[in-house]
Structure to design on (710 residues):
């Protein structure tokens, strides 16, 4: 399956598709240092929890690769600064912290093996970041296969925001499920809420689906209830930024109300996300920090002011309680309520179930 | 109470505030014939059901005033064309048809009195249109007084779209309720969903409240659920474009899902609308025609393309079932379930209860 690549490791540096400029322009930016990658994550050149994880891993790798450190001690001293800079970008995305932790562990192992030679450490970090990327792609394919079985054979499905290739650096989580279902012969039309304020649905999901030739209908976020009431919709599938131990799911703002509306209209509501999105350290969604973004995202669209200069709320995410989630689709299988048990079992199960 | 006037009868013609250009520019257009007024309604220079009613009445009046007819027979022949042109603009707004019916009745009475002199007919039609406007203002004040008693003494309230002065040519219906409550000393902050695609919340309601110095917080339409879940909201009050005999309410797209979310969070959900919005000829909301507007309203914002060229749905209204409506606030009092009884009683009661 051909899909757009939002991030690639290249000899010149880390190449990202600038998602802020889609769909008007397809522009790539090549970052040659970790500070640039941190800025790229923060400024949403790349977004989507799994893709942020890949970017974070590559950011650490390029930070080590291009470090001016002359000795292992100098590199060890610099390393936390690299990780901290990348950590202080998007607070909600679990994958960001998961990727940083993984790169820290690899760094610890590589440096403990090393006899003050930096070259093997640099090579190990680059290889690890590329491995993270490859694993993300395999994970998406597995999520897609498990999720496709839950899609209707034909008819309408709905998603939210962009949990596609642009968000994951694979085939996507929610859109991966839809892509595999379509590949397997399901005749689906995708309802795409535009997802204000950042318009990931209108700009990214609509663009991705159009590129793939999958039929879609773009709607505004306030049409969801009306559509579910007046049209047959077979399933809703969304991504996740973080999932608590009890199944409470943080995802793009608007997801919670879509889940309430799905429940009201008896439409199955699925979350598709990698195991790395699970945060078993927190019992419930009330512990997930919610990023508040700048008012200008609401008062301006593409630089054009649409509202007077007034007070604005701009929470980037919300939390959907587990009771509204029909199932959580992971690369290791499908979890259903009670999630505290089912998610724990999946988390404990061997990743080799993937193959 | 000083509020913006979206429409005025002037010696030069009918002066409208061009709501399409708010909040960036405050521009007035003076229409000197009924064809222009019909275009103004259709193109949303003026919008909001009650204001459309006033515009329709003034449109008929100016059509008669400026008619080239030389005799009563010629005027009688032209009159249906004037009314039909104005009728074929916005199909959902009940007030449009109510105002046309009233002007038709006045025309019938005036022409039956007349001895082929056109001047008194012209004067009668102008007076009737101005009377419609004055009545709308009185109606808003009465709705405001009844509704203010249902508002919290302090805290957050929410509205949707613009059911304000700009929508009614008075103090507004939903915003009239909030204005009177604030005047009476309630300390309210108004949550204003931006109301895509046309952004009446961001452009008009935020502007009106800012002009009046009433505190507000602008949100995107997909934040409603999250806000209701995480913040205390005391009441939601919206306008209506048409109310069926059983209380089912057509209003701006997004209203239905706000009502579902209000019900989920046990927040009272009020509809504020004049009796003229009632359509007792239809038993339930399934008979209300829903206007589908152009895809460009979704794919472009203020002329800037925000989505690729894909299929779009753009229903301008939705229907909220009566079971989700806590009460309907009219100028004759507050109706509660069962609405088939309470609305019929209010419709049958004398309009003099207004005074």
């Amino acid at each position: 399956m051909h899909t757009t690549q939002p991030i690639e490791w290249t000899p010149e540096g880390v190449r990202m598709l600038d998602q802020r400029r889609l769909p008007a322009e397809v522009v790539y930016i090549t970052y040659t240092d970790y500070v640039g990658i941190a800025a790229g994550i923060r400024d949403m050149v790349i977004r989507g929890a799994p893709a942020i994880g890949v970017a974070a891993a590559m950011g650490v790798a390029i930070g080590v690769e291009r470090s001016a450190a002359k000795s292992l001690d100098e590199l060890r001293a610099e390393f936390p600064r690299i990780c901290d800079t990348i950590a202080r970008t998007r607070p909600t995305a679990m994958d960001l912290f998961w990727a940083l932790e993984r790169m820290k562990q690899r760094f610890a192992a590589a440096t403990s093996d090393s006899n003050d030679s930096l070259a093997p450490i640099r090579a190990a970090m680059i290889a690890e970041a590329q491995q993270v990327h490859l694993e993300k792609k395999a994970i998406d394919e597995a999520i897609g296969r498990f999720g496709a079985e839950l899609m209707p054979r034909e008819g309408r499905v709905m998603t939210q925001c962009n949990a596609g290739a642009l968000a994951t650096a694979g085939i996507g989580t929610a859109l991966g499920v839809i892509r595999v279902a379509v590949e397997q012969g399901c005749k689906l039309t995708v309802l795409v809420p535009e997802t204000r304020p950042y318009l990931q649905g209108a700009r990214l999901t609509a663009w991705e689906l159009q590129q793939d030739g999958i039929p879609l209908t773009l709607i505004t976020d306030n049409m969801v209830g009306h559509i579910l009431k007046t049209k047959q919709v077979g399933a809703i599938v969304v991504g996740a930024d973080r999932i608590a131990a009890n199944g409470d799911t943080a995802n793009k703002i608007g997801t919670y109300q879509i889940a309430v509306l799905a429940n009201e209209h008896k439409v199955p509501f699925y979350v598709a996300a990698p195991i790395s999105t699970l945060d078993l350290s927190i019992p419930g969604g009330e512990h997930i920090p919610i990023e508040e973004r700048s008012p200008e995202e609401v008062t301006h669209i593409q630089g054009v002011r649409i509202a007077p200069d007034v007070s604005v709320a701009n929470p980037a995410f919300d939390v959907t309680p587990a009771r509204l989630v029909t199932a959580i689709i992971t690369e290791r299988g499908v979890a259903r309520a009670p999630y505290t048990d089912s998610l724990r079992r999946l988390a404990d199960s061997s990743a080799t179930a993937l193959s």
